[in-house]
Write a structure and sequence with these properties.
The structure holds 2 protein chains of 2 kinds.
Chain A: H1 2-24, H2 33-61, H3 67-72, H4 83-86, H5 92-113, H6 119-147, H7 151-164, H8 176-183, H9 190-207, H10 230-244
Helix pairs in contact in A: 1-2, 1-8, 2-6, 5-6, 5-7, 5-9
Chain B: H1 3-25, H2 38-41, E1 44-49, E2 55-59, H3 68-82, E3 88-92, H4 105-114, E4 116-117, H5 126-130, E5 145-149, E6 157-162, E7 168-172
Parallel strand pairs in B: 2-3, 4-7
Antiparallel strand pairs in B: 1-2, 5-6, 6-7
The chains are: A mainly alpha, B alpha/beta.
């Protein structure tokens, strides 16, 4: 039972951690100083949320692993983030579309997790929810500006949406871990989140004058530890220091 | 000394110690906004003193990833040690989550004098959060200020510019 909860916490934590790491790659490279700061701020919030979740997961596991060991010493197959989170930054449009899809997902999820029977998770979610509202406002604002912008920006943001949409099926496809969490009233039923998420996304896309891509059957299993080739490169960079100099501190 | 008085003494001592702890906390400053104490910020949630005299201070982070949180916890423990409380620790309190509404009136005034526009109040509802707050320039008081960026130099601040006096300034965000 607690094994399922450990796994569930890692899914939430890893999605935030991997997405936060991706956003951090923009630091010093964003199209404008304001966006550099914006993306770095989102990254910081996400990594902060991941730290709270990983610390809790480590305590629940009871094998003495702390947040750092879980973040820096697990291999890719032991990461359970959503596949969408690990997708490369691409251009700014790709980054912002990936962000919108995941912000809207976290918004609906944290809204429910605030009422989780797991008090510690509920506390983390109620904190994260406030931050996620800012994230969603940022990513939704940019999708509208780019979609309803120039011909070039519209083409790019539509292309990003078309390319990344296929990863969204995984967000709402439950497995035995999700089922166990629903049974314990730890987490909401993913099926109830889907229409709300879709409504939120469709509202943004309408305002952005973008086309909603069609759903595809979902073959992605990041949350089960099976990843696209991109995660390994991300972890190689993120984990390098602790792998090369175990236990290093500064 | 009467027996009755003696029986009260440990309690009185603890109460006096607690008052001292709160006074010490007033001197612990936010490293990012060094005019605000942890009391001004409204992040101290409780002070507990055990029978053995161990002090526990409950502190809420402003943002999950705010790097100042750890510095603040260390500063609290050091300040209490300097005041003679050797057995002191600071613990995280996440729930209910901190809101910028908890910044004290003194804290808001200190922010303004420091050149940071204080947050709009009563923000606990998301509806308020999503509307554009009215932000007054901390230099000239004009409300003709425009948001340059939702995100600023620290997680808790947004970047604004005053259209009346042209001063760029930080705005402490509602959360």
């Amino acid at each position: 039972m607690s094994d399922a909860r450990f796994r569930y916490l890692l899914r939430l934590a890893d999605t935030s951690l991997v997405l936060g790491q991706r956003l951090g790659e923009w630091v010093g490279h964003a199209p404008a100083l304001e966006e550099d700061l914006g993306l770095a701020n989102l990254s910081l919030d996400l990594i902060g949320q991941a730290r709270l979740l990983l610390t809790y997961a480590g305590e629940l596991e009871g094998k003495g692993r702390d947040e750092d060991q879980l973040a820096f010493l697990r291999d890719g197959t032991d990461f359970y983030n959503l596949t969408l989170a690990e997708q490369p930054n691409g251009d700014f449009a790709h980054t912002i579309v990936r962000q919108l899809l995941l912000d809207a997902w976290q918004l609906e999820l944290y809204e429910e997790l605030q009422h989780s029977s797991d008090e510690r998770l509920a506390a983390i979610a109620s904190k994260a929810l406030k931050e996620t509202r800012y994230h969603f406002r940022y990513s939704a604002g940019w999708v509208v500006r780019l979609g309803d912008g120039t011909a070039e920006s519209k083409t790019r943001v539509q292309a990003a949406l078309d390319e990344l949409w296929r990863f969204t099926g995984e967000l709402f496809t439950p497995d035995e871990v999700d089922a166990a969490m629903v049974a314990q009233k730890v987490a909401p039923d993913l099926a109830t989140l889907k229409p709300r998420w879709q409504g939120r996304i469709e509202e943004v896309l309408r305002e952005a004058t973008l086309e909603r891509p069609t759903d595809t059957a979902y073959p992605w299993h990041g949350k089960r530890g099976r990843h696209t080739e991109h995660l390994g490169y991300l972890l190689a960079e993120m984990q390098f220091l602790q792998r090369a100099y175990p236990g290093a501190q500064w | 000394m009467s027996a009755k008085r003696q029986a009260h003494e440990p309690w009185l001592e603890a109460a006096a110690a607690e008052r001292t702890v709160w006074r010490v906390l007033e001197s612990v400053l936010d490293p990012e906004i060094p005019v605000l104490s942890v009391i001004d910020l409204g992040i101290v949630r409780h002070v507990r003193i055990s029978d053995s005299g161990a002090i526990e201070v409950g502190v809420s982070p402003t943002y999950s990833g705010c790097p100042a949180t750890e510095v603040i916890r260390h500063s609290i423990v050091h300040a209490l040690r300097d005041a003679g409380f050797d057995d002191a620790r600071a613990v995280d309190v996440l729930s209910p989550p901190w809101t910028s509404d908890w910044i004290t009136p003194e804290g808001r005034e200190k922010l303004r004098r420091f050149g940071i526009a204080p947050p709009a109040t009563a923000v606990s509802s998301p509806r308020h959060l999503f509307g554009q707050p009215r932000v007054a320039c901390p230099r000239c008081g004009s409300e003709q200020a425009e948001r340059v960026s939702e995100f600023g130099s620290t997680p808790c601040k947004a970047h604004y510019q005053c259209r009346s006096c042209a001063e760029p300034f930080d705005y402490f965000k509602c959360i």
